[in-house]
Design goal:
alpha+beta, five-stranded mixed beta sheet, two-stranded antiparallel ribbon, 15 helices, 7 strands, extended
């Protein structure tokens, strides 16, 4: 028997024995689900699916009520849904979303039903189904708002916005923010109405208490004065609330307008830069390209246009193709061997296998990193290009060199364009920002390995 399979079976038997002794199905499922999350967050999808099957075996054998079992099955279905969302497999995610709906209804648990609506909303926005996402979100927000769970609704909206920012989905951020602002406007009115109703009820209760407890004129006079003061405070509070509400609505509308202006500005900037580059190129080509300043201006114009084009195309679908990893890496390494200093070794560690990726973007990024490594690696050093498979849908390229370590305080600005003024004859500083934007357009990531201290190591994570 395979050792890994034996270990997994042993852990399942141990969990079943532990459950049989304690009988706490919820704790067993929750602990198992936490383990599943650690597996697939680390790219171990196969182990995560195996663990889910073992948890479902425990649920089936538990002898608990159908409602308790449905709660457990809902949690395992949700983890499968989360994995397929990370893989961006819409059909499989939809199947498990349907299972979540069935289990949530069978559990008769309102919290699970609300959680289902939350995940359904994320699914629609993630795969561009904005109308369905808006419809589902309105249902969820209406339920929680009717239950006066304002804080929960607020947290859900903020979670969706943060989700969109982490995933780089401008569509999800824009849709979530627009819904959030509209909801905040309506809830502010509801809250003020509730406060007024509560204060009126308090006044009515106080008047009833006065009538029941003390009928003397003196007591009534004191209470009437108190009520007058309370009414004055109420009027002042309402006035202040109205001013705050009006300011909030004005600020919200201004923020919405700012977001729309930013989106328009990005498109206009791309168009302007493209036009400017088209007008500059004929003039620059009339000059002597052997002059360092002219060559620098030509490169800068090209880089600006490339970066602008990539930023405006961030939400477009990127085409992929099958690429043989070993020959692809060997070709990139060969292209820079003539540029390395004497005694510098260039090594490639890549298996004979193929993966799907955008060859143009990945080739541009790795070639730029290798050229930089060739420039900064001293005599007798070494440069390496490595490939690692980190999971079923995650691949990793690493470019390492033994040159000087980039100071930590400079790392954050490496991928930001125009973060400092450059002498254009020595480079415009746009190479790494262009590479980083290409990685983002592929829904991937480019970063420096902060734990590598013998030189510099860049990591390109490709999600496929």
């Amino acid at each position: 028997m395979n050792k890994k399979v034996f270990v997994i079976l042993a852990s399942v038997m141990f969990a079943i024995c532990g459950y049989a002794q304690g009988g706490d199905l919820k704790q067993t499922v929750d602990e198992g689900v936490n383990k599943v999350q650690s597996y697939y967050n680390g790219g171990m999808y196969k182990e995560a699916f195996e663990k889910l099957r073992s948890i479902e075996g425990i649920i089936a054998a538990s002898g608990k009520s159908q409602q308790e079992k449905a709660t457990g099955y809902y949690k395992t279905a949700r983890e499968r849904f989360n994995m397929y969302m990370k893989m961006r497999r819409a059909a499989s995610a939809q199947d498990h979303l349907n299972s979540m709906e069935v289990h949530a209804n069978n559990s008769a648990d309102e919290a699970l039903k609300n959680d289902y609506l939350y995940n359904k909303t994320i699914y629609h926005y993630t795969f561009g189904q904005n109308d369905k996402g808006n419809e589902t979100f309105k249902v969820m927000a209406a339920k929680l708002t009717a239950q006066k769970e304002y804080k929960k609704v607020d947290e859900v909206y903020k979670t969706l916005i943060a989700n969109g920012r982490r995933s780089g989905s401008a569509n999800l951020v824009a849709q979530s923010y627009a819904n959030y602002m509209a909801w905040k406007d309506s809830v502010s009115v509801i809250k003020h109405a509730d406060e007024i109703k509560a204060l009126k009820q308090q006044i009515a209760d106080n008047e009833a208490a006065i009538a029941d407890r003390d009928s003397s004129i003196t007591s009534r006079t004191v209470i009437i004065v108190a009520l007058g003061i309370l009414a004055a405070v109420l009027a002042a509070a309402l006035l202040l609330g109205a001013v705050i509400l009006l300011r909030f609505i004005a600020t919200t509308r201004k923020q919405k307008k700012t977001i729309n202006l930013q989106k328009d500005n990005i498109a206009l900037k791309a168009k302007f830069i493209s036009n400017m580059s088209a007008q500059l190129d004929p003039t620059l080509h009339k000059l002597d390209p052997k002059q360092p300043e002219v060559k620098a201006l030509m490169d800068f114009s090209q880089h600006i246009a490339t970066l602008s084009r990539l930023e405006s195309a961030e939400q477009e679908e990127i085409e992929t193709e099958e690429v043989q990893v070993d020959s692809f890496c060997e070709g990139l390494a060969a292209s820079i061997r003539e540029n390395v200093k004497p005694g510098v070794a260039v090594k490639v560690n890549a298996p004979k296998m193929s993966i799907r990726m955008n060859k143009e973007y990945v080739s541009h990024i790795l070639q730029h990193l290798l050229k930089n490594a060739a420039e900064y690696t001293p005599d007798g050093g070494h440069i390496s290009l490595d490939f690692n498979r980190r999971g079923a849908h995650k691949n990793q390229f690493l470019v390492t060199n033994t040159g000087s370590v980039i100071p930590e305080e400079e790392r954050d600005d490496l991928f930001k364009p125009f973060s400092k003024i450059h002498d254009l004859t020595k480079g415009d500083g746009l190479g790494l920002p262009i590479c980083h934007q290409m990685a983002q357009n592929m829904k991937s990531d480019l970063y420096i390995d902060s734990e590598y201290v013998k030189g510099t190591r860049f990591v390109l994570d490709i999600i496929c």
